[in-house]
Write a structure and sequence with these properties.
Number of strands: 9
Strand content: 15-25%
Strand order of the largest sheet: 1-2-3-5-4
CATH topology of the domain at 8-151 and 187-264: Transferase(Phosphotransferase), domain 1
Order of helices and strands: EEEHEEHHHHEEEEHHHHH
Largest sheet: 5 strands, antiparallel
Low-confidence stretches: none
CATH superfamily of the domain at 8-151 and 187-264: Transferase(Phosphotransferase) domain 1
Number of helices: 10
Structural class: alpha+beta
Distance between the termini: 50 Å
Length: 321
């Protein structure tokens, strides 16, 4: 704290927070000058050093330092990304990680979608999503050249490898992969893609979205991936409307077009939304087959939901939503 942010750097109330599948997250206070700051510490989980990663390069993922640098670039582009205050280096004697400013708000989708205090927020969030995504997709790729590149066809090919590695054969997944490979769109645009733009990664207040979290699966690719992921039925958490349970696709596309100056092809987005169901089903499969020793009971239990996104996928491609 003293070296990166300011003296005296005294630490108070260091508490590990719940939630977050891939990072160890802590909240703490620290004295800097005459002020006591409320901050967040994040240290990503470390892979087992003695085990090679068979999916290295198949599924793009940023390092802790790259994660922080991407959030800095996003913040400068007008995205409500966490404000980074420090990035750890070798002299800190800590695992790679970073410190950001704390932002108060709610992340639980069920509360955001149902509680009266968020009634106004729900009317604003669709337009906010469109504006935020336009800003993300406008980040200069040259400033974040470390991002892995992955278009639609490359992503489908990567998930074929994931399924092969798991050796868990399910006809519905095999069909979904075949359909996706045969219908993968080609995009003329290639931008920064957040990669996990959805409920759970929004910090929301009564005025709407205050912060966008979890940038570790960001990559460069087709921007329509982000518009579709927030529409995947899993991330509606029981809400009736397709955009996160709170808005319509038409409202999202209109807001994005207004903010970006670019047009949206609904059919193009629909492929990404349908693929999102297959992709999440494979994610459920991975969690369900890795075992509680590796991923804990809560995450392993997500595997039992594998049928839900597949059901959503088939309904969507057959014209039912």
């Amino acid at each position: 704290m003293k070296r990166h942010i300011g003296a005296p750097g005294t630490i108070y109330n260091l508490n590990q927070l719940t939630g977050g599948a891939n990072k160890n997250t802590y909240s703490f206070g620290a004295d800097v000058g005459a002020d006591r700051l409320h901050l967040i510490l994040q240290i990503p989980g470390k892979p087992k050093e003695d085990e090679p990663n068979p999916l290295e390069g198949v599924m793009p993922r940023v390092t802790a330092e790259e994660d922080a640098r991407l959030m800095i670039a996003a913040h400068e582009a007008g995205v409500p990304a966490p404000k980074v205050r420090a990035i750890f280096d070798s002299s800190d004697d800590l695992d790679p990680g970073y410190i950001t400013e704390f932002v108060e708000g709610e992340t639980l989708a069920t509360k955001i979608l149902r509680e009266d205090r968020f009634a106004k927020a729900r009317t604003l969030m669709t337009a906010q999503c469109g504006k935020i995504l336009a800003a993300i997709h406008n980040i200069d790729l040259k400033t974040v050249s470390f991002l892995g590149r992955q278009d639609a066809a490359e992503m489908v090919a990567g998930y074929y490898k994931v399924v092969d590695l798991q050796n868990f054969r399910l006809p519905a997944i095999e069909w979904g992969l075949k359909w996706a490979a045969e219908n993968a769109p080609k995009s003329a645009r290639h931008t920064v893609v957040h990669g996990d733009f959805r409920h759970g990664n929004f910090i929301v207040g009564e005025e709407g979205i205050r912060l966008l979290l979890d940038w570790e699966v960001a990559h460069s690719g087709d921007p329509m991936e982000d518009l579709a992921w927030v529409c995947v039925k899993t991330w509606r958490f029981g809400g009736r409307k397709p955009v996160g349970g709170f808005g319509t696709r038409e409202e999202l596309f209109e807001a994005y077009e207004k903010a970006s100056g670019l047009s949206v092809d609904p059919k193009h987005v629909q492929w990404w939304e349908a693929w999102g169901g297959v992709k999440w089903a494979i994610g459920c499969m991975r969690l369900g087959t890795r075992g509680v020793e590796e991923v804990n009971v809560e995450r392993c239990a997500i595997g039992r939901r594998i049928e839900e996104p597949l059901w959503d996928y088939f309904n969507l491609i057959e014209g039912r939503d």
